[in-house]
């Protein structure tokens, strides 16, 4: 983490991905899924998650998600491509997004 600046790390992670698949993956493999900036690297994502959530990260897998094709009336358009990061936490570590609610 010594070579990376904090401002960059705070902008790498855009949002957690909350879906049926992500909840299933979180329960089964102790992984958390984040939407990240398209030019993010694995070491950057690892450092950013460790900095923001105070957890130890085991590994990171990245996926480029293609934007869906959509129709607007008679015009064809497409949503933007985006990047997804599967962050595998070390055993015993947990990030709880529902903690602040309720």
Number of strands: 6
Q: Indicate the proportion of strand residues.
A: 25-35%
Integer count of domains: 1
By secondary-structure content and strand pairing, the structural class works out as alpha+beta
**Gross morphology:** globular
Description:
This protein has a single domain, classed as 2-Layer Sandwich (Alpha-Beta Plaits), CATH 3.30.70.330. Strand 4 (69-72) and strand 5 form a beta hairpin. The chain is globular. By secondary structure, the protein is of the alpha+beta class. It has helices at 6-12, 20-29, 42-53; strands at residues 13-16, 31-36, 57-65, 69-72, 75-78, 82-89. The longest helix is centred in the middle third of the chain and has 12 residues, at 42-53. It has a four-stranded antiparallel β-sheet, with helices on both faces. Strands 4-5 form a two-stranded antiparallel sheet. The chain is 28% helix and 34% strand. It has three helices and six strands; from the N terminus they run H-E-H-E-H-E-E-E-E.
Keywords summarizing the entry:
6 strands; 4-stranded antiparallel β-sheet; Alpha-Beta Plaits; alpha+beta; 102 residues; 3 helices; single chain
In a nutshell, what does this entry contain?
This protein has 102 residues and is an alpha+beta fold.
Topology:
Blueprint: H1 6-12, E1 13-16, H2 20-29, E2 31-36, H3 42-53, E3 57-65, E4 69-72, E5 75-78, E6 82-89
Antiparallel strand pairs: 1-2, 2-6, 3-6, 4-5
Helix pairs in contact: 1-3
């Amino acid at each position: 983490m010594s070579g990376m600046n904090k401002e960059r790390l705070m902008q790498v992670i855009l949002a957690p991905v909350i879906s049926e698949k992500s909840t299933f993956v979180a329960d089964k493999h102790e992984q958390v899924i984040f939407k990240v900036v398209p030019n993010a690297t694995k070491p950057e994502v690892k450092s950013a998650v460790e900095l923001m959530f105070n957890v130890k990260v085991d590994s990171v897998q990245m996926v480029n998600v293609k934007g869906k094709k959509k129709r607007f009336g008679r015009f064809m358009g497409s949503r933007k491509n985006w990047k997804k990061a599967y962050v595998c936490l070390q055993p015993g570590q947990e990030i709880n997004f529902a903690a602040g609610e309720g």
